[in-house]
């Protein structure tokens, strides 16, 4: 009987997760974990981590691709296009012009016509330029791109980007690669509350608990790179992140209990047999 119940619960979970799709612009996905491809010790470790994560979207920094050694294996050789959708990104771009040029290059290479937009002139803290990000988003949308802008956790900027047609907004939890977790929690909550498009928490996630918290808040997905690539065992960490994102999403859909300032007994307080009546029987 217990085995039958467990099987029914597994089927119910599978059906729920299958129907709960992540929609980004014109695309739909089952996985809500997006992985980057930098900082791995080698391509084989990256490939194993992608497989363990269950991700369907893999982001690639075009400026960091070595296109000069055409006879040598490259990053793209280790990403199965039948299994993963490549999300080009403009990492390393400091200006609007550079970001737009990289997006055009991605399209010319035959990659999907969508782009993770990063415009980061700040070399020390790697904080995105809000003004340039908004302008580059507008220009790329005019050219037919679906734009996923990476931003500070700024609710007003998030609204402006949605107004011009961004298909997501991607607020940072904390600085890129820092592993500090969700330091911008109140602002991220506001962005999620006001969003008309999926909100993807990007940057700063260091542990599965960070990813689970982001999903519990109502984020549509998490994007990460360093937390997996620089872990002691990246494939195992990728699996942990997959499970955390799924658990956080399920918790959000289930709806957590309200917080209370006072304790509330788990057992019922009405109809309880008193000690005196029990001993007098």
TrEMBL record:
UniProt GO cellular component terms: cytoplasm
Gene that this sequence comes from: thiG
Protein name per UniProt: Thiazole synthase
Pathway annotation: Cofactor biosynthesis; thiamine diphosphate biosynthesis
Keyword set, alphabetical order: Cytoplasm, Schiff base, Thiamine biosynthesis, Transferase
Protein origin, superkingdom: Bacteria
GO molecular function, one term: thiazole synthase activity
Family: Belongs to the ThiG family.
Gene3D superfamilies with a match to the protein in the record: Aldolase class I
Catalytic activity: [ThiS sulfur-carrier protein]-C-terminal-Gly-aminoethanethioate + 2-iminoacetate + 1-deoxy-D-xylulose 5-phosphate = [ThiS sulfur-carrier protein]-C-terminal Gly-Gly + 2-[(2R,5Z)-2-carboxy-4-methylthiazol-5(2H)-ylidene]ethyl phosphate + 2 H2O + H(+)
Active site: 116
Quaternary assembly: Homotetramer. Forms heterodimers with either ThiH or ThiS.
Pfam families, per the entry: ThiG (PF05690)
Organism: Thermosporothrix hazakensis
EC number(s) on file: 2.8.1.10
